[in-house]
Amino acid sequence: MTGATTHMTLSGHFTYFIMVFLMIAGLFIVISRSNLIKKLVGLGIFQTSVYLLYIAPGKLIGGTAPILSDAFTVYSNPLPHVLILTAIVVGVATLALGLALVVRIREAYDTIEEDEILERDLKPEGDGKTK
Amino acid sequence: MNLAPHLPALQVVIPLIAAPLTVLLRRRSVAFGVALAASWAAFVISILLWMQVAQSGTISYAIGSWPAPWGIEYRVDRLNSFVLVLVSGIAALVLPYSRASIEAEVSPQQHYLFYTMFVLCLTGLLGITITGDAFNIFVFLEVSSLSTYVLIALGRDRRALFAGYQYLLMGSIGATFLVIGIGLLYLMTGTLNLDDMGQRIASVQGTRPILAALAFITVGVSLKLALFPLHQWLPNAYTFAPSAVSAFLAATATKVAVYVLLRFYFTVFGESAVFAKLPMEEMMLLLALAGMFAASTLAIFQTDLKRLFAYSSVAQIGYIILGMSFDSVSGLTASIVHLFNHGVTKGAIFMLLGCVTLGMGGTSLARIHGLGKRMPLTSFGIVVGGLSLMGVPGTAGFISKWYLLLAALEKGQWWLVFAIVLSSLLAAAYVWRFVEVAYFREPRKDTENVAAMPWLMSIPTAILVIAIVYFGLDTSFTIGTATDAAASLIRGRP
What we know:
With 131 residues, chain A is mainly alpha-helical. Chain A is 63% helix and 0% strand. The longest helix of chain A has 31 residues, at 79-109. The termini of chain A are far apart. In chain A, helix 1 packs antiparallel against helix 2 (36-58) and helix 2 (36-58) packs antiparallel against helix 3. The longest helix of chain B is centred in the last third of the chain and has 32 residues, at 329-360. Chain B has a domain at 279-494. With 494 residues, chain B is an all-alpha fold. Chain B has a two-stranded antiparallel ribbon with strand order 1-2.
């Protein structure tokens, strides 16, 4: 990998452009949206961009799965795929837990808009004691 | 069968197996027993590991017998054996404490799940500390983080749910930044083993992906360790979580994140010239000072004790980062010692606040008027903790501040000595807020019936308060280990 020293070409770095776009878009959604579900969607997109960062460089054009055979000489690196399998599981767990928390928040606050939640906690009758 | 060579694996595996066991057994007293056994076993193992490392040097353990740069390696050296003792020691004390504490704060049918999450969180923190594999750090980080989000959301206040959700967002962003950084390092070096990475990075030092990796890892881990100004999740999380959870997290979670930062900076990036290319030292110095002053000032104006000490945690993290920014053996010694001493101090303070919650029904300053009369011992304990935060001689906090001052003098930075002393005065101001309310106000009528403290709560708390004073007088364990650890981190630097 000598990407930092060679000239940047659009085709050679296509996956990186996609990755950066997804990353920024996801992060922007997390920051700018007030709806708790939409924030989780943004977080999901943000995490997905990382999958691409790992997977894309592991794939060689013309390479096959790393099962030794006389017919093939070029193999793709399997390690990034395995790592990202783990990261996907982590992402799913995070999303599931996040959604579960949103369900509980809706039960307690009757809303899933961040600004309304903050507003309700300021009111004295909310007092924060019920859940 | 001789188990001694397998201690590094058992350190993580025992709590990991205990977690599903507590779910299967369901009965909360049985679940408590299993969790307690696991946390004490982890504590004993961590001490054995610490002694083994002190005697015969770094231990390398190949998981599944796959040898090191290919397989996952558990690597125990002076630094992480020290952090392991802190994490498992605090867990071993907080767990018995939690039994009585969650009785009042968590609904009974959730108790066994509380223990599950607690041992899972412990597993994650121990795993982050012991592993020598970069991707493994991320996996364990998520194990500990996901269980932490649940533990925080268990608080009885409905704001605990939102605090848990906010921490989930911030924590996941932080962890994802860390994976991006690790991914870039992996692309450039072709290895995930931290030691191997540290050697191979020399050939690609200063390239743009490595600098980007440094930036991503710094921001990601800083979110986790609540470096000012990335600390917004922390005050709410500590305030609304159940008391036992606040105590455990305040003493361990941010400290383990500091360890990760130390590991990446000095084991991975250290030997390359990365630090020379970016003004890292200046940046850390600036953020540390901002944290010390801004967070301490914010702490003075809080109306709830838990929130007050949460802001104080952000300020104390500033001291740890300040020590790191000196980039010298004495600075790192101060950081590592403060990591331990502050863990002990904050653990004790939050455990005492749990006792206050149980006795007085809350920790708001308005409620605890006359705490010195109602709960004299608890109140005295908080004062001891407060003195340690200020850095008064005879407490653990003094030792770390003393070393920090020495490190600043070594650099010839006289104005920093002044800044450290000035920020200690701010600490004195917020501790005084507590002293004034607890000792110079008449107790409220509705707090007359103070519940008696169960011994399961008072004994672990007392042990930790005594530890504050002990580590302030006998520093052979803390300073000895920290100096060795700092020297081994710095060695080989250009």
